[in-house]
Structure formats: structure tokens, C-alpha cells
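Next comes one such specimen:
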Amino acid sequence: MREIVLINSTISKEIPTLCVSEIHYLPIYDALLESNIPPHAIKEHIDALVFTSKHGISALMCEMERYSELGAFLEIPVLAIGAGCERVLESAGFCIEFISSSSHGESFAREIIARACGRRLLYLRAQSIVSNLDLALRQAQIPLTQIIAYANTPKSLPYSQKPAPRSVLIFSAPSNYHAFVQNFGWDSSYIAIAIGQTTLRAFAPSVQGYVSPKQTLEACIKLAKELARV
């Protein structure tokens, strides 16, 4: 049976994990000021929040712990992607308006354009993004402010940590795939699972890749166990 390894930025309790990158939260409070959004009057300048990753939510929550006035974010409707975001938003008490089942930024944009019409959106995003969500919203003439809430920094790993041949590797983000290849190259015997369509598109054409039926780690693990028997 093939070995299953999650390629991620944080350790999972559910499955063996190889951390190929680190998440660094960035100062959102200062970025709000630079974007001419007064932290004490957030609701007067923002009509909805946009998240495509739970890291963006976690970065905001860290800032909310430091600055009490940012608690107003809990009252602003949220548009987000995936069950992972939904769980974090619910546990933190955010006001969820819409959760997309799509794992593709462009599809998400099409879903929320009608909801976003005439509203001012704040997109808390990664330093580096693959999808064209921001471009699609701007082309639809949706007022959009973007704040870089976190950065995903690749790690330099010893070659001894390279997964065994024929492993099934689960990738949680395009950045983690690129960081893995940067460290270890690619063994043609690997099977790769992408948590969503955006991650799948990051794979090289030669990669034997599959996309999870749902954008959750649980669904990825279930698919990995099925493929591990091949």
C-alpha cells in the first residue's frame, strides 16, 4: 500500500504531514489605515468581506485580539470559499452570507458578482495568489479593496525528508506544491491530490493528479486511501 503524506504549511493531527512552508500573518490594522479605512469606522467603509483561505480569517482574528475596535468585522457579511473557511468563520462568530462549494477563484467570482453589486468588498488574501478573483471582480466594476493578510514562505528542507517513491501526496495549496518541487523535484511514481481546482492547475502536465470531490482535508484523505491501494 502506498504511503500517504499531506504537503502543507501546518501539521495535521489526522495524517503524516510534511511542512514545506510557513504561514506568516501580516499587520492588517496598519494596512487598513494605508487603504484609508479607519479601524474605528470599519462598517462605514466595508459592506462585505471576502475570504478564499482560512489563513486570511485566522490572520484577521489575530489582529482582532490585539485591537478591540476590529471586533466590528464580526458584524460584516462574509463571502467565502469552502467548508474549511466555513468552519473557522462559524467557530469565531462571523456573519456568514455565502459559502461557495466551488474550489476555483474565477467560479467563485461569478457566484458572488450579483451579491456584490453596489457593495464595497474587502478581500483579505495571501501575498501571492493564483486565481484571478480580484481581476474578475474589478472587471465587473465591483468596488474592491485588497489587503495582504498573510504570506506563505517556502522552507528549505533536507533531501532525507523526501517522501518515499509511490507515495500519495495531498497538496493543500499551489504554493505548497511549488515549495515541494523546489525542495525535492518530482518522482514520476507519485500520485498527487489537489484540494481544489486552483491547486490542480498548478501541477505540471506530467503529474498524475486528482482533485478532491470536496474542498476539505477529510475528502482528500478518503480519496488518498482509495488511490493508495492502486
The first strand starts at residue 4 and ends at 8. The chain has two domains: 4-20+157-228, 24-153. The domain at 4-20+157-228 is CATH 3.40.50.10090 (Rossmann fold). Residues 54-66 form the longest helix (13 residues).
